[in-house]
Amino acid sequence: MALTDADVQKQIKHMMAFIEQEANEKVEEIEAKAEEEFNIEKGRLVQTHRLKIMEYYEKKEKQIEQHKKIQMSNLMNQARLKVLKARDDMIADLLKEARQRLAEIAKDPARYSTLLEGLVLQGFYRLLEPKVTIRCRQQDVEIVQAAVTKNIPIYKDAVKSNIEVRIDMERFLPSDICGGVEVYNDNGKIKVSNTLESRLELLAQQMMPEIRMNLFGANPNRKFMD
Question: Are 132 and 166 in contact (CB under 8 A)?
């Protein structure tokens, strides 16, 4: 039985509808896949940039932290230097006061002559030379001469040896020092400095750890006390 024109048109329309439906479904499938791929790529890009941003700010945070540590270290060093300078200034003031007290001793003839006797005799013992030269302040010549006269017999009796002593009358110690003497061997190459300043300096060096402990307390970083 032959198809009529109406039947043909109907089949054609049915086929076109089927093709159109398949085309629409294919478009929807393509769009869905494209959307999925877009979302995946967008997520990847977002995550990549997010990681880069996090890495950037982590780096900045580390730099800031490092900068803070450096600043803190500098401030601590500056504070430590100020403390050390204040301590050094205090010790300098202490030694200055000690020098002033030494100068007062030289103004007391009885105390100063006794002190000079000990300094002169110590110079003899430290040199143990048959001939020595003593240098002193010009204003101390008479007191030193008296100390020499008194100490020669003491020295001879102690070491069983003679000693010849000369007071240098050409080169005197500065008049503004606290006092004391310098004792030289015969050729002047060996010197025993027994000025009050040199004795104070030596004593200060020996007692500096004790002085610092008494003034500032024990140093927690110090391992040895000798």
Answer: yes
